[in-house]
Amino acid sequence: MSDILVVTSKIKKFVKENAEMNTSASAIEALSKVVKEHINKAVENAKKAKRKTIMDKDFESECCAEGTCE
């Protein structure tokens, strides 16, 4: 098992309150993997912009490229 980057109790509570469902350990691991992927892409975007700080726009450019922006 790798490092978990999300707060398990908060995720479980959110899912329970909003969907009345339980959350498996493997779902937490999968979510953490997705978070890591998004962070790594944001790091790349910040580097391309010659910054040492990740900003919200570094995440937005990724979701827009995927067509998932709201």
Describe it for me?
The chain has helices at residues 8-19, 25-48, 56-66. The mean pLDDT is 90. With 70 residues, it is mainly α. Helices cover 67% and strands 0% of the residues. It is built from 3 helices and no strands. It starts with 7 loop residues before the first helix and ends with a helix. It has one domain (8-66): Histone, subunit A (Orthogonal Bundle). The chain is elongated and about 45 Å long.
Radius of gyration: 15 Å
The poorly predicted ranges are none
| Category from helices, strands and their pairing | mainly alpha
Helix content: 55-70%
Number of domains: 1
Look at the structure and give the CATH class.
Mainly Alpha
**Spatial gap, N to C terminus:** 33 Å
Query: What is the mean pLDDT?
Result: 90
| Tertiary shape | elongated
**Number of strand segments:** 0
Task: Describe the largest sheet.
Answer: none
N-to-C series of helices and strands: HHH
Number of helices: 3
Return the CATH topology: Histone, subunit A
CATH architecture: Orthogonal Bundle
How much of the sequence is in beta strands? under 5%
Fold topology:
Blueprint: H1 8-19, H2 25-48, H3 56-66
Considering the chains and any ligands shown, give keywords for the structure.
70 residues; Histone, subunit A
